[in-house]
Amino acid sequence: MSCLIYESKDKVATISFNRSDKLNALNDELLNEFNAALIEAEQDDDVAALVLKGNGRAFCAGYDISGTGTADTDFDMRSETDVTELIKKQRRRQKSIFNLARFPKTKIAQVHGYCLEMGCSFVMACDISFADENAQFGDPSVRFGLTTDTPFWYHLVTHRKAKELLFTGRIIDGREAERIGIVTKAVPADQLEQKVREMALTASLTPFDGLTNNLEGFQTGIDARGLAEGWRSAADRRAFGILQRPASRSGEFNFLDVRDRKGLKVALAEMNAPYRMCGY
Q1: Separation between Cα atoms, residue 258 and residue 244, nearest integer Å
Q2: How many domains does the chain have?
Q3: Exposed, middle or buried: residue 236 (CB in 10 Å: 0-12, 13-18, 19+)?
Q4: What is the CATH number of the domain that holds 214?
Q5: Which helix (H) or strand (E) holds 52?
Q6: pLDDT tens-digit profile of 72-94?
Q7: Owning domain of residue 247
Q8: pTM
């Protein structure tokens, strides 16, 4: 595996995103390797808990929007797009989060640095999550004219707070992420790894039958509240947003054109500048 590292020790499997030069931004290759690692951990009877983390300076900066190193350019709203293929792409991309959410063993996220867009979805798909108090959470895809393609925001975060974050793309720290339910606990950076290790070892002691029955009970409850339907509708909304091509409308900031002319860093700075002037 070239985009992540999979390790198993003392009944705990660890998946580490390993595109540190890209802040662990997600591409097709990484997601394919991630799904394969989940299968390996599920089939290994010696694994009782799974830890998800990122190498380098960030947990995960979201999907790769650099225009390089990613095969799936589904966010490029400038090109003609086949609707059927676009929806297939969205559901394929979303499947990695769904697979993690339904993984039948305890899932623990260890978050530091940036945790943006799909990175937040990975964390919310885990059962338990610890974050550095200064980790950065949010989904800035709204600033491209897109919408989240996973339904966790509507189920784990209060509606008013989720609306604020998803309508503005505001970034919050680990302490606020704990207050609103994105993570279980925010801790000082020097305690993060130890807290995760302790939780993983504790979770690995739980008898498998009790664990799986509890996981199924939680899953049944949130599915009954609409999560199951939310998966399909979230992917469809993302696809419809791309088809509307909002960045091509007169007067709106066109991130992709600026990126191609001036580079990714300049495009991000110009996109975020007016939001920062408004306090976001």
Answers
A1: 19
A2: 1
A3: middle
A4: 3.90.226.10
A5: strand 49-54
A6: 444 555 555 566 777 777 777 88
A7: 4-277
A8: 0.86
